Amino acid sequence: MQEVEWLNVNLLWATRSIRPPPVAFIFQMNISDTGWGVTCVTSAALESDSVWSAQHQSLHINVRELHVVFICLTIFCSEMCAVRFQLDNTTAVTYINQTGGVKSLACDTVARKIWDCRVSRYFGCPLFI
Questions:
Q1: What class has domain 19-128?
Q2: Closest by CA position to 68, among listed 29, 107, 33
Q3: Residue 89, SS3 per DSSP
Q4: Bridge partners of residue 84, in order along the sequence
């Protein structure tokens, strides 16, 4: 009986479209030891860059890559839409796609912030990596 109750409660949240919505924004990232840059392939007006603070510069490159994804989501993605990030860092891609991980607490923390932001603002819209 508990299983039936669980299904009734959770089936409302378990919907997933067979065909995902069209991607509204495609962002390309460029992260280095000195700074970062983000360019939107689908909208030339959406771009940003900055240098790292001393605090961020001391972080591992994987954490910095995840941090730029989080910055991009909070700055540019204020409406409900499907977003694709083109990343060249396989660790960052894995942490985002797996909603965190166990090898790096710092990467896990930022990946969870990305998903918390994504779910709270854009529930049901996919994040493509």
A1: alpha beta
A2: 29
A3: coil
A4: 26, 128
